[in-house]
Specification:
The chain is α+β, with helices and mostly antiparallel strands and 191 residues long. The chain has nine helices and nine strands. The strands form four sheets. Strands 1-2-4 form a three-stranded antiparallel beta sheet. A two-stranded antiparallel sheet has the order 3-5. A two-stranded parallel sheet has the order 6-9.
């Protein structure tokens, strides 16, 4: 994590490399016991998201939940939706750490990265994409984005419309434990 002037950013490729190291060690251990890895589940923080291009490559560092930049975005958002309505939809208080606010902040402060951003994925759906699966996001993690309607269990059309964000920017919301795909052959060989 890089810290300075309120900034707290993470190199998502370093995170991926660490996860790959762990997965490779687990696969070796399973192999040594005469077994194989048959399924994988992740438990992740939902308050960070990574902007990736159409190929799934990061276009900017991941802004950590500890990053305190973005107060201007919060003030602009208050003009669009009341905190009571936001809480009724998402169950969250208005805060800059939520991925929807980070995406809006990126538009203002890092327009080149925002222009290159095809998806804005939290850790679980990002790692799923990099593993070769569909970027499914469980409801629990989706609820941390400040874009998820917790009652309807889907992306909030109202909030995404106010933010001018398409529903396909985030992963596909699925119940926890839903199979979302198979690890790509090339990644499986690597691990």
């Amino acid at each position: 994590v890089e810290h300075s002037g309120g900034r707290a950013e993470v190199d998502s490729l370093a995170v991926r490399d660490g996860v790959w190291t762990c997965l490779a060690a687990l696969a070796r251990a399973a192999d040594e016991l005469g077994g194989r890895v048959r399924s994988l589940a992740l438990s992740v923080s939902g308050n960070e998201a990574t902007a990736v291009d159409v190929a799934g490559a990061p276009v900017a560092r991941t802004v950590s939940s500890m990053d305190v930049r973005g107060g201007d975005v919060i003030e602009k958002w208050r003009e669009k939706v009341s905190e009571a309505e936001l809480y009724a939809i998402t169950g969250l208080p208005l805060h800059v750490m939520h991925p929807l606010m980070r995406l809006l902040w990126m538009r203002d402060e890092e327009p080149e990265a925002a222009a290159a951003c095809a998806r804005f994925l939290c850790w679980g759906d990002l790692l799923a994409l990099w593993l070769g699966a569909s970027p499914g996001i469980d409801h629990s993690t989706a609820s941390c984005t400040m874009a998820f309607d917790i009652s309807a269990r889907q992306w909030s059309g109202r909030l995404l419309e106010l933010a001018d964000v398409s529903t396909d920017v985030f992963g596909e919301p699925v119940p926890t434990g839903t199979p979302i795909g198979t690890v790509a052959s090339a990644v499986a060989v690597e691990l």
